Amino acid sequence: MAEILSLREAVAALVRPGDTVAMEGFTHLIPFAAAHEVIRQGITDLTLVRMTPDVIYDQLIGMGAARKLVFSWGGNPGVGSLHRFRDAVENGWPRPLELDEHSHAGMANRYVAGASRLPFAVLRGYRGSDLPGRSPTISTVRCPFTGEELAAVAAVNPNVTVIHAQRADRAGNVQLWGLVGVQKEAALAAERVLVTVEEIVDALDPRPGAVVLPSWSVHAIAVAPNGAHPSYTAGYTVRDNDFYQAWDPISRDRDTFLAWMRAHVLEAA
Amino acid sequence: MAEILSLREAVAALVRPGDTVAMEGFTHLIPFAAAHEVIRQGITDLTLVRMTPDVIYDQLIGMGAARKLVFSWGGNPGVGSLHRFRDAVENGWPRPLELDEHSHAGMANRYVAGASRLPFAVLRGYRGSDLPGRSPTISTVRCPFTGEELAAVAAVNPNVTVIHAQRADRAGNVQLWGLVGVQKEAALAAERVLVTVEEIVDALDPRPGAVVLPSWSVHAIAVAPNGAHPSYTAGYTVRDNDFYQAWDPISRDRDTFLAWMRAHVLEAA
Amino acid sequence: MSWTSDELMTVNAARALAGARTCFVGIGLPSAAANLARRTIEPGLVLIYESGTLGSKPSRLPLSIGDGELADTADAVVSVPEIFNYWLQAGRIDVGFLGAAQVDRYANINTTVIDRGPGRPEGRLPGAGGAPEIAASCGKVLMVLRHSRRNMVERLDFVTTVGHGSGPGDRARLGLPGAGPVAVITDLGVLRPDPDTAELVLTELHPGVSVEQVCEATGWKLRVAPDVGVTGPPTSMELAALRELSDRGASDA
Amino acid sequence: MSWTSDELMTVNAARALAGARTCFVGIGLPSAAANLARRTIEPGLVLIYESGTLGSKPSRLPLSIGDGELADTADAVVSVPEIFNYWLQAGRIDVGFLGAAQVDRYANINTTVIDRGPGRPEGRLPGAGGAPEIAASCGKVLMVLRHSRRNMVERLDFVTTVGHGSGPGDRARLGLPGAGPVAVITDLGVLRPDPDTAELVLTELHPGVSVEQVCEATGWKLRVAPDVGVTGPPTSMELAALRELSDRGASDA
Questions:
Q1: Which chains touch B (3 or more CB pairs under 8 A)?
Q2: Is C50 a residue of the active site?
Q3: pLDDT over 50 at D250, yes or no
Q4: What is the extent of the structural domain holding C103?
Q5: pLDDT, average across residues D12-28
Q6: Is B121 in CB contact (< 8 Å) with chain A?
Q7: Residues of C with CB below 8 A from A217's CB?
Q8: C142 assigned to some structural domain
Q9: N or C, where is chain D less crowded by C-beta within 10 Å?
């Protein structure tokens, strides 16, 4: 059953140094508040998993929290490069970053396999691409009925998955809606699930398009209003497009980045 | 794009003798009206696919429409046996019925593979069961990462899938809610999709738990009010439990069955 | 107070759910037991039906696993592929609760065909449904069925669903993650697998039932625990709850 | 009336969607083109985004593929695994519309790494995203990118996404079901694969652009169609629609 904790308690209880951590949210519902708490608690040596690393992982990577990144598209959506990600990969700053790189279809299916507790998933993917040569988690499998060779991708089973949702009830059932991305799969693939929510409510009245994660599939819930900022929470907040654009100059320079993180993350909360 | 047709036109246009036909609906939203139209049009030699054959297939089988049944549980839910199904299998009446028999997990994954246009799906299933020995569509596959052997099931790709839904809009977008079962997968696995609906509306206002099939994934829509009877359509009709109980004596005897079908199906509509 | 043998069976099946958090409810008798448990010993029990409902709280016994109330009262409704892949196969469910047509001494189940002897066609049963994977993947398995030589057989005509296979170690060898059947509750008593041999042993009789009666109704030479117990008689509260449930719906859901 | 070369590119990219029913819209320039097509040549065009929206009808250009309006205006919103497995992989989408960092003469794409020469670390690009499977599974593929020797290269540093591989027959050999790239629309003109060799050939120039300019901006020895045409100038309606879209949102969605 999900425990309702403060964000500080929840991160301390669920995220450990060296963990494989997935923070999901496909543009929508990105759990920035939880990521900032991970940074503040100095939890490091993480293997970070995420289809679209985005500004949230640029921050974790730039602060040296990650030793490895598992991903399929790493950019600042609609803006350009992730400078901290590039600096880590290209120059090893602040530490080298190992990569395991997939396509979106591959990553999505890795989570599906993880949520299903299968060791791998099958897809028509990667054909002719150089990607399989760089990843030990891409292989092939032959259909026992037709003989066709298909791509196989290894399941992802994070130690912890962190997501942001609109709300939870007091029993710990979680409800999210809008673009629901790959969050259900990422959560169900993990050993431990941390959900930040905009609010706790008495009852989750049904909503069109909503996904509900029952309390017994979640481990900790923390209230973090506007916890997806600069991403957004449909029905609660809007995407801060200006922040995404502002992030480009902030993140280009190491010192500017560090000063920003100090002022807005380390000394905040 | 979906065409809106009469039920008679829709069945005539989409269902052909010898087709593999899936009529899905997991207890809820079972497309009885369409099945009755198939019987009236005398379309035969069908391979019928359905997780839970239920009274709807008892009727088709008893009328001799099917040469083969692909399924995972064939009973009258909460009541007992399907007598026409048993008579066909045990005594070949009115014609022999070939079987391809799975577990629910296997059938569900066969539809998933079909909807994904993969030749097979992988699951942890059938271990130690005698079922694989009876089905050519159950095999094994080895994980290329862990070496573990898992069950593989062949995709199901019906020529036609028939489902019942609450409603469609004039553009042919279909909306269903409540227990949504395996209908999305069954529809997307098929070459042709026929949807009967309670009504056509101007706009599909969003509903909690609703699945929407866009017009361009559906081929024909026919209005069939109460078209799931004796099954039900959440929000429109309730399950006719008395009918399911009454079906037991009706279907036990061949002549009683035929007389009932004549009066209620062949000479109806 | 008096009760029927079916009531004894259902009350004891419900009691077997004490301590369970989540239950995958098979079609048939298990639904009555699981719903009774929610009203008596385990009010927080999360009922999961293969029709795709997580946390159903029906007010009456559903006739089928697809009754509308199962969806209307659920915490979440998901697709059938999802319930089997993300919830059952993933090992998230504590207890799988199954009925059966034929059971053998290792709690293997046949729900597929009955051998009627040479020259006669096989008798057709409904088929596997969710049982093979429920028995494989749930933390443990409970079974409930009426006790007769027709149901409790020396040798299954067909193995639809593996309980303990041909004995100890078989589940591990087959790669079945759950612990398998831990109790078979019938209208005569309760059988449990011997920890050493995995063979079902009569461990409890229902009040008023004799060991001889049970052995007589069992198709194999039934072993009896040295300290065979007697189940507590149904309490008035259990009976009242069961009868209220049954009055409102079908008793053989 | 005047226009920029980016406007020429986007207007022509939108025109290339004439006749398409469904379009899987890649991140970047394709989103502007696909949204413009919905306002001009193909009002019924169904926009599909990898964030899980089927039939989005945004009123302004989304900055990212996850903008709320894409979900709010969609016919259906599905999960990311579903959009890739049931909709894209299943071959239901007519046109895949992709941007690219590096393209070669067979319309293969690199969006992974740039080789900066010996002793220097690889330059990092964002990665594959949805492109490999979009290019594999859609009925056909359109590409839109700015024309330069940096983008249109003799040899890719990395093959992220296969267009026509190393020439005719390669897609079939690799088991890629769709027809692959049929046009590359740039700010200078339009390249199309030669039906015999699969090599990109300059088939149309934008108004005011010379063949020499295009060859100069191409990293390989570009073949030019004998009857190279000139694209129609943007109509005032096209420009007005594009500018209205861009005023309302980002132009490089």
A1: A, C, D
A2: yes
A3: no
A4: 5-185+233-252
A5: 93
A6: yes
A7: 92
A8: yes
A9: N
Number of domains in chain C: 1
Task: With respect to residue C202, please indicate whether it lies within any of the assigned structural domains.
Answer: no
Q: Do A214 and C21 make contact, defined as CB atoms within 8 angstroms?
A: no
Which CATH class, in words, describes the domain spanning A15-102+157-266? Answer: alpha beta
B52 closest CA partner among B81, B72, B32, B79: B72
Tell me the per-residue pLDDT of D139-187, one tens digit each, with 9 for 90 and over.
999 999 999 999 999 999 999 999 999 999 999 999 999 999 999 999 9
Q: Are D107 and D140 in contact (CB under 8 A)?
A: no
Query: Looking at chain B, which residues constitute the CATH 3.40.1080.10 domain(s)?
Result: 15-102+157-266
| Contact with chain B for residue C102, Cβ under 8 A | no
Please answer yes or no on whether B118 and A150 come within 8 Å at the CB atom: yes
Residues D22 and D39: their CA atoms lie apart, in Å, by: 15
Closest chain B C-alpha to C143 CA, distance in angstroms: 17
Of chain A residues 191-210, which have a CB less than 8 A from chain B? Answer: 206-210
> In whole numbers, what is the pLDDT of chain B averaged over residues?
97
CB of B159 closer than 8 Å to CB of B191: yes
Q: Is residue D63 in some structural domain?
A: yes
Question: pTM higher than 0.90, yes or no?
Answer: yes
Please enumerate in sequence order all residues whose Cβ is within 8 A of that of C182, keeping only pairs 6 or more positions apart, or say none. Answer: C140, C141, C142, C192, C193
Contacts with A207 from chain B: Cβ below 8 Å: 208
* CA distance, residue B116 to nearest chain D CA (Å): 5
- For residue C63, pLDDT beyond 80: no
Residue C183 pairs with which residues in a beta bridge?
A: C142
Interface with chain B: mutation pick from D82, D85, D89, D94, highest number of B CBs within 10 Å: D85
pLDDT band at D198 (very low <50, low <70, confident <90, very high): very high
pLDDT of residue B4: 98
**ipTM for this prediction:** 0.97
Return d(Cα D249, Cα D74) in angstroms, integer: 18
Where residue B128 falls (left for φ over 0; alpha for ψ -120 to 50; beta otherwise) is left
Per-residue pLDDT at D26? 80
Q: How far apart are CA C217 and CA C206, in angstroms?
A: 14
| Catalytic hit among C7, C42, C50, C133 | C50
Q: Tell me the per-residue pLDDT of C92-121, one tens digit each, with 9 for 90 and over.
A: 999 999 999 899 999 999 999 999 999 898
What separation in angstroms does the CA of B101 have from each of B57, B136, B137, C162? 15, 10, 9, 17
pLDDT band at C251 (very low <50, low <70, confident <90, very high): very low
* pLDDT beyond 80 at A165: yes
Q: Which tokens hold the place of B256?
A: 């009683």
Q: Contacts of residue B139 in chain A, CB cutoff 8 Å?
A: 144-145
Q: Is A127 on the interface with B (CB under 8 A)?
A: no
- As a whole number, mean pLDDT of residues B179-188 equals 98
- What's the pLDDT score for residue D252? 37
Q: What tokens appear for B23 in the block?
A: 């009529």
Looking at the complex, report in whole angstroms how far the Cα of residue B249 sits from the nearest Cα belonging to chain C: 18
Token pair recorded at residue B73: 């549980």
* Closest chain B C-alpha to D43 CA, distance in angstroms: 14
State mean pLDDT over C71-75: 94
Q: Which of B183, B204, B216 to mutate to test the interface with D (most CBs of D within 10 A)?
A: B216
Q: Which of A85-89, B252-256, D28-32 has the lowest mean pLDDT?
A: D28-32
Touching C (3+ Cβ pairs <8 A), the chains are: A, B
For A202-258, strand residue ranges (E) read 211-213, 220-223
> Does the CB of C47 have a partner CB in chain A at under 8 Å?
no
Joined tokens for residue A103: 């396509």
D79 occurs within a structural domain? yes
Share of chain D above pLDDT 70, in %: 98
Q: What angle do CA C168, C174, C180 make, to 5 degrees?
A: 55
- Given a cut of 60, is residue A140 above it in pLDDT? yes
Chain D residues within an 8 Å CB radius of B118: 89
